[in-house]
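Record type: monomer structure entry
Structure origin: computed from sequence
Chain ID: A
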Amino acid sequence: MLNLKDLGAHYRKVRESRGYSMGDVTSNHLNKSQVSRFENGTQMLLLDGFMHAINGLNMTASEFFLTIGNFEGGNLHRFGEKLQSYIVTQDIEGLKSLILPKPRTKEKKIFNILAKCAIKDLSGKNLLTDEECLFIDKHLTDIEEWTVFDVNIFAMVLETLDINLVYQLGLDLLKKDKFYKKLPYNAHIVKRTVVNLYVHMILHRKFSYADVFEKKLEVLLKPNDIVERIAVSIFKKISCYRQEEKSEILTEIERDIQFLKKLDASVLAKKIEILLVNYT
């Protein structure tokens, strides 16, 4: 899988840049053959093995993931940068340009779906086909162990999935403590995904489901998770407004959005405005 190859190749670059041979990073818990298969992208290491591989570099997990920005990423990274740039500028035509007419590989089919989901979020226009919805449903439900790549996909394609399946997959993700508690980068991705789940449930008026994710976010979010905390705070008010329909709550929401714009968080403010329009 693409992310497996990227991660293994990145590990090899870090290892070589630090002057370590493959034998230098092995231990009683990790042999040379496992390291070789991981670096070549033919086998993913389990969490314990991955942690031993990082320890072999004399680095912490945080230090290892901080090096990612210093190396060239793969196709997912490059596509993600283009996708994000078009989302920030609300460039619908740019997003459409990312869609391939006849995607042949699994990777390209997923990229098409990501672009179409972004278009739906920004414009309300649904370009997704039933075939694509079934494809991403099968992709996510068939995987026994999710990677960061799969969690990122899940966070971005919620609109393609049945709401009850989204809820169940979200609960399953939260049960994977080992996936996100030991690796800071994974923890960041999971936090962002749970915020997306919380917002998604409120927009679709599944308030009891939203309450479950809100309680989990109270534990997951730290004081420095400022953007995530702001988003949760605003959507908590949106949840109240949708259930109680009190005009004073709507006034508070509008005031919060204007406050975001003054804080130079206009992208988040605009996204919230668009979501409110598209999901009224």
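Annotation 1: The chain has 16 helices and no strands.
Annotation 2: The chain has a mean pLDDT of 85.
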